[in-house]
Amino acid sequence: MISEEEIRNIAKLSYLEVKDEEIEEIRNKFSSILEYVKKLQELNVSDILETANLSTSENVFRGDVGKEKDVEPLLNALSRKKDNYMQVKKILYNEDN
User: Fold this and answer.
1) Less crowded by CB within 10 Å, the N or C end of the chain?
2) How far apart are CA 26 and CA 32, in angstroms?
3) For 52-60, which contacts have Cβ atoms below 8 Å and span 24 or more sequence positions?
4) What stretches of 2-97 adopt beta strand conformation (E)?
């Protein structure tokens, strides 16, 4: 079983605040998870391809269709525009300058 000190160390590394009364419950749950992982590690998976998947789902693709939009109402509402584009303040900079 995982020790109380290990639980506190894991909590510290994970930036989690763990109360003293929660330690025993966490130890039990964590130990249970580790035992399950240990059982999984005992399985022989050498004959199974790494990309094996039991799911029969397939990607569904649709055609990429562009639609023309009327931008005039938006452009007319802008206070700053240039050549049918919104004009915004420069947000990129070069640290060398």
Assistant:
1) C
2) 10
3) none
4) 81-82, 85-86
With 0-12 / 13-18 / 19 or more C-beta atoms within 10 angstroms meaning exposed / middle / buried, residue 7 is buried
Q: In the structure encoding, which two tokens stand for residue 8, read together?
A: 């506190």
Question: Could you give the 3-state DSSP secondary structure of residue 64?
Answer: coil
Residuewise pLDDT in 10s, the chain (97 residues)? 889 999 999 999 999 999 999 999 999 999 999 999 999 999 998 887 777 677 778 888 888 888 888 888 888 888 888 887 888 888 877 766 5
- Residue type at 34? L
pTM flag (> 0.85): no
End-to-end Cα, the chain, rounded Å: 58
8 close to 23: Cβ distance less than 8 angstroms: yes
